[in-house]
From TrEMBL:
InterPro entries: Acyl_CoA_acyltransferase (IPR016181), GNAT_dom (IPR000182), N-acetyltransferase (IPR051531). Its EC number is 2.3.1.267. This is Ribosomal-protein-alanine N-acetyltransferase. Belongs to the acetyltransferase family. RimJ subfamily. It holds the Pfam family Acetyltransf_3. Gene3D superfamilies: 3.40.630.30. GO terms for molecular function: protein-N-terminal-alanine acetyltransferase activity. The lineage of its organism: Bacteria, Bacillati, Actinomycetota, Actinomycetes, Kitasatosporales. Residues 7-180 form the N-acetyltransferase domain. It is an enzyme of class 2 (transferase). PROSITE patterns: GNAT (PS51186). Keywords: Acyltransferase, Transferase.
Amino acid sequence: MLADGDTVLRPIKLRDQRAWREVNQRNREWLRPWEATIPPPPPGGPVTHRPTYRQMVRHLRAEAHAGRMLPFIIEYQGRLAGQLTVAGITWGSMCSGHIGYWIDQAVAGRGVMPTSVALAVDHCFRVIGLHRIEVCIRPENLPSRRVVEKLGFRQEGLRPRYLHIDGAWRDHLVYALTVEELSEGLLERWHRTRPGASQK
């Protein structure tokens, strides 16, 4: 478990199903433009369906046990408020991963997501031993871009038609950080630079 004040990251569990569904369904329209979708199969190819919650959790756990993923639930003030996953973890000469996330609209704008990303990045760099973290975001997703920009991620460029999102192949901006760019922890930087920090 990773925590800072009212914000907690913890492993996703099967028993989170009811709370996860409630938050996800209540935020359907808020999340739909940014959610991954399954592209149509090629002619004669197999039809792939979205996994059930239980199938999703089992897949995330299997990937975590294989060292390729860190799947977290985000809690805010003791309630499930979203999800953050460090995926695509690669070792060897690369030592990198990428972060994806979503948040309950009801708590957006309270610093929950920047805090969550900072917690995850510090864990990846200081505990797991990764060297680089990427976040890929649709150019139109201004709230998500603000999260990484507040934390000082570098924008590296555009990946055309990078992921199938909301029913089509969508361009994504690439943001990244390497461990050398942080002379302090990312959470420490966030606390120092977030709005209102100088008044504390």
